[in-house]
Amino acid sequence: MDKLKTKIEFDAVSDNEAFARIAAAAFVLKADPLVETMEDIKTAVSEAVTNCVIHGYGNSGGRIVMEMELEKEEDAYIFSVVIEDFGKGIKDVVKAREPMYSECSEEERSGMGFTFMELFMDELTVDSTLGKGTKVCMRKKIMD
Prior knowledge:
Largest sheet: 5 strands, antiparallel
Number of strands: 5
Helix content: 25-40%
Number of domains: 1
Strand order of the largest sheet: 1-2-3-5-4
């Protein structure tokens, strides 16, 4: 195996957050990750999907696309995941990535989604366009 790829599209509803976590966990099993690494990946995916549901679509529904790739290197696997919504987009990505920042003033939100994604993954990029949506790309090295 040099590289595995998959693409999943699902409804932007909170119930599908668990589906996305399980899908990511099943996908990386080939790399035989440590339990801690698996939990890191599941948490980061969960945060990204939750952001799509709550911030991208405001709990009003839509579609989320999740693309995953697992590539073998000499001494490790590289897991990549892209989670994309086609919702309202983020006005200020730099501000949104600050710990404790949330645009949801009417709900109790911790504002830690991007912080957790950065903490649990090795790389995080966020690309967002107002009125068109947000794409979150994350990578994690899984040692053999």
